[in-house]
Specification:
This protein is α/β, with parallel strands linked by helices. The protein has helices at about 5-20, 75-85, 100-115, 130-140, 170-175, 210-225, 240-245, 255-270, and strands at about 30-35, 40-50, 55-60, 85-90, 125-130, 150-160, 200-205, 230-235. It is globular and about 50 Å long.
Length: about 270
C-alpha cells in the first residue's frame, strides 16, 4: 500500500468510528454471542423485537486488509440495515499477523455456520466490505466451506478484492501463505453456475481496491452460467461506499436503496 493511500485509509476509518457513534438502537435488540473459545470468536446480533419468519437475515463481514477491524465499529451498518426491516449479524475474527489467512477463513466459516444454524427458515444473505467482501465471496462460491451453502439467498460485495494474484502488497505473500494455498484466496477461482446471486458494488473513484475486481468476478461468474450483477457509483471511494450506509446518508443513499432492492427481490424468490 502506498503511504498516501495508507494515510487516507486511516483518516477515513477514523471517520467511520465517528459515524458509528450516532447509530441508534430502538427497533432492535443487540445481543452478543460466542462461536468459539478465542476472545475474537464473538458476534453481535441486531434482532427486531417483533419476530417475523419471513424477515431476511444479513451476515455482515467487515474489512480492514485482514489485519484490523472490530464488530462494534460497524454498528452503523447494522443500524441502517435494520431500518430496512432486516436482522443483522456481525462477527469478529482473528487478524493478521497473529494468524494467517487460512485461520481467518476458518473463523469466518465457523461463525457463519453457527449463525446460520440459529436461523430457521428466513432468507440469509452474506454481505461484506473490502476484505470482508473477499471472505463473503469465497463462502458463497466455494461450496466446500459451509455446511449449508445452499441456504444463502445472495451475496452483496462492497468494494471487494476478488482477483488479486499475483499480490502487489509485500505482506500478502506471507498472509496468504503457504504458496500452495495462494489459489484459495481468489474468489474468481471458484465461480460456479449454481452459486447464490452475486451483487457487486464498487465506487468509481476507489483507488484502494479498483473496480476491475468486481468486473472480473461478475464476468467470470456470468461466463459459467452463474447469476452476477454490478453497480458502479460515481464520486465514491473505498471507504465512502460503506460510509454511505450510515444514518447521516440514509435518506438519499443510492447504495442502501440498491441493497434493499436486491435483498427484497431475492428474498421473495425463496417464499
Amino acid at each position: 500500500m502506498k503511504f498516501k493511500e495508507f494515510v487516507q485509509d486511516l483518516s477515513q476509518i477514523a471517520g467511520l468510528k465517528a459515524v458509528n457513534m450516532i447509530a441508534r438502537s430502538g427497533h432492535y435488540v443487540l445481543q452478543e454471542r460466542r462461536y468459539g473459545d478465542h476472545e475474537r470468536h464473538r458476534y453481535d446480533c441486531y434482532l427486531h423485537r417483533e419476530v417475523d419468519a419471513s424477515r431476511p437475515k444479513i451476515i455482515f463481514l467487515y474489512g480492514g486488509n485482514w489485519r484490523s477491524g472490530d464488530r462494534r465499529d460497524y454498528r452503523f451498518v447494522a443500524d441502517s440495515l435494520c431500518s430496512l426491516g432486516f436482522d443483522v449479524f456481525v462477527p469478529d475474527y482473528r487478524l493478521f499477523p497473529a494468524v494467517r489467512f487460512g485461520q481467518i477463513l476458518d473463523d469466518i466459516r465457523v461463525a457463519v455456520d453457527e449463525i446460520m444454524s440459529t436461523i430457521s427458515t428466513e432468507p440469509i444473505f452474506l454481505m461484506g466490505h473490502s476484505a470482508g467482501a473477499q471472505l463473503g465471496a469465497l463462502l458463497t462460491l466455494n461450496a466446500q466451506l459451509l455446511q449449508s451453502a445452499q441456504r444463502i439467498s445472495g451475496f452483496i460485495g462492497l468494494a471487494g478484492p476478488y482477483d488479486f494474484f499475483p499480490y502487489t502488497e509485500d505482506s500478502h505473500w506471507e498472509l496468504f501463505s503457504p504458496a500452495e494455498k495462494y489459489r484459495e484466496s481468489q474468489p474468481v477461482n471458484f465461480v460456479r453456475p449454481d452459486a447464490a446471486p452475486l451483487y457487486l458494488l464498487h465506487g468509481r473513484d476507489d483507488v484502494r481496491v479498483r473496480r476491475g475486481h468486481s468486473k472480473s468476478l461478475m464476468e467470470k461468474q456470468q461466463a459459467v452460467g452463474g447469476d452476477a450483477s454490478r453497480e458502479v457509483y460515481d464520486g465514491m471511494g473505498h471507504i465512502d461506499i460503506v460510509a454511505s450506509l450510515s444514518r447521516i446518508y440514509r435518506g438519499n443513499s443510492e447504495v442502501l436503496w440498491d441493497i434493499n432492492r436486491f435483498v427484497t427481490a431475492e428474498a421473495l424468490k425463496r417464499v
